[in-house]
Known about the structure:
The protein contains ten helices and ten strands. The protein has helices at residues 19-28, 39-42, 44-52, 80-94, 114-133, 174-187, 208-211, 226-234, 250-259, 266-284, and strands spanning 8-11, 32-34, 60-65, 67-70, 73-76, 100-104, 140-144, 163-167, 194-197, 242-246. The strands form two sheets. It has an eight-stranded parallel beta barrel, surrounded by four helices. The protein has a two-stranded antiparallel sheet with strand order 4-5. The longest helix has 20 residues, at 114-133.
Amino acid sequence: MRDADPRIVLGLHRSRHERRLLTGALDLGVTTIDTSTNYLGFRSHQVLARTAGDLLPKFRLSTKVGYFPAPDGAEHSLAPGRLYEAVEKAARDLGREPDVVFLHNPEHSLHEGAAHSRDALAQACAALEEATSSGLCGAWGIASWNPSPLTSLIDATTPRPSAFMVRAGLLVGIRTLDAADAVATSWGLNSSMVWGMSPFGGGANAPVWDRVDPRVFLRAGAGLSPVQAAFRAAYELPKVGTVAVGTDNPAHLQDLIEALAGQVDERTIDEYRNVLRARLRAQSA
């Protein structure tokens, strides 16, 4: 087993939750896994406990709460009582307390005016803070697919998370990148406390990676594949310390670990963000 590398998290969003994947990750030094109450049809926690309960203590484990089973599949809620109970249930189903529990996509329930939304966000955060204080989890955070609605809702009354998860990578729009930066600044979170997710925009096999060469964002990227270069660049768009990536293939994890050796050309990254911002202005004109 290699030394643990905290910069990569194995995400289980589309995973089959197979034991061989978890043992393979451990062998490669990937010792953090990320799941959610609603993954695998709301069965992720139970399946993990059943198929790999003996392995879970070897991982740093994060999960998410906010989605609940409903007749039409799922519903989202920021009700503090439901969130607290969801953290309790997560610990029971997993057979251990999660190390981090994220409030999952709070923006999905923030549509009723600024004052109401600000209170709803603060109360939801307070519920996770209480769950952490009660020992149901080690820490709490926010995971947001679209952080733009959060930028105007955070004030001195909003509890401060210890982690913030957002989309990262070359396919993320400038609005999301700027909003992620603004939210992290509002909460006083440095880059080591920010997690990236979905670095390939849905899949490393997408046709876009055959049409572009992300190695232009690296100082010496000739030794890496375009997919590896795209993964390395994701740590800069926005600036994050950790990236959660999904796969059912340990060999893919091996490739991504090797990508971490790449050195990013920060000037090219800055130029890219400026190009995205200029394009947005032109579209809005």
